[in-house]
Amino acid sequence: MDTDVSALRSLAQTYFDAAYEMDAEKFASIFHPSSSVTKVAEDGKLGVTPIASWLAVVRNTKAPKQQGFEREDQILSIDVESELALLKVKLRIPPRSFTDLLSCLKVNGTWKIVQKVMTSKV
Predict the structure, then answer these.
(1) What is the SS3 assignment for the chain?
(2) Which top-rank group of organisms is this from (predicted)?
């Protein structure tokens, strides 16, 4: 259990690094290829984006690091149950603040994000 929590903290750190640098390859290293990103769209409807499409958007987004923004990120909680884990994280990519729920599975001995559910506010 402690090794799982440690591995999940490391995954979260990679996630934060990738977000601050807008590094699609870092994100790809921690997301399962069949994962997706889910949110409520501005029109109030459910939006589900396959990870490959989301990574394409990341590649075209200017990084907070490039813009000289201070880094703001934190792990709010980690719950582990066998090969299943849920990370709740908070981060800022100006002008928005995000809260993400990262559903993870231990696949072939390695923790991967299989679903990202997110919300944000200005």
Answers:
(1) CHHHHHHHHHHHHHHHHHHHHCCHHHHHHHEEEEEEEEEECCCCCEEEEEHHHHHHHHHCCCCCCCCCCCCCEEEEEEEEECCEEEEEEEEEECCEEEEEEEEEEEECCEEEEEEEEEEEEC
(2) Bacteria
Q: What domain range is 55 assigned to?
A: 2-121
Number of domains in the chain: 1
63-105: pLDDT as tens digits: 999 999 999 999 999 999 999 999 999 999 989 999 999 999 9
Which band of pLDDT confidence, cut at 50, 70 and 90, is reported for residue 1? low
Q: Closest Cα partner for 116 from 77, 91, 86?
A: 86
Dihedral sign computed on CA atoms, order 58, 102, 112, 66: positive
| CATH number of the domain residue 63 falls in | 3.10.450.50
CB atoms within 10 A of CB 100: 21
Structure-block tokens of residue 8: 């999940």
